[in-house]
Amino acid sequence: xxxxxxxxxxxxxxxxxxxxxxxxxxxxxxxxxxxxxxxxxxxxxxxxxxxxxxxxxxxxxxxxxxxxxxxxxxxxxxxxxxxxxxxxxxxxxxxxxxxxxxxxxxxxxxxxxxxxxxxxxxxxxxxxxxxxxxxxxxxxxxxxxxxxxxxxxxxxxxxxxxxxxxxxxxxxxxxxxxxxxxxxxxxxxxxxxxxxxxxxxxx
Length: 203
Known about the structure:
The protein is an all-beta fold. The chain has no helices and 18 strands. The strands form five sheets. It has a four-stranded antiparallel sheet with strand order 3-4-5-6, with no helix packed on it. The chain is globular.
């Protein structure tokens, strides 16, 4: 949906061709946005100026979390099964690399393989949550195969960076938030919340 937040009205609706459109990442400089699809075999690319579908990027096993580099040159998309990090060139809207997330155990059939991802504000690190295994992975953008796995609590979902070095991971099922030193790749502490934290804003 395109929404006028001042008038509080819907301006347009863009049909992506799926019923599992889940997360979006806007790329304002190129007037488009990307939308993942949990149950369909593509990432949707929407022309925000035309308010219409631009193209589809094949992602045969479904997709969940996604995040852009700060300069907008690369998009990282988490594939469902097998567990992969697809690297997409936003100039051509094509996958230029697919990196296995080998640090995580494979998710059994019937369980949620959900993976979320965020990029540190300085563009140097990727942080990935693994809902099913209760773990996160940190990897430098310069070498995505150099993955460090860290245990958190049950059901990690959202990720918020407070700075280039400090991130918060929302442990949805456990009801807690883990504080992460990203460059050092370690958990600093965990504090309790009500059950169900999924997103967090820092201001």
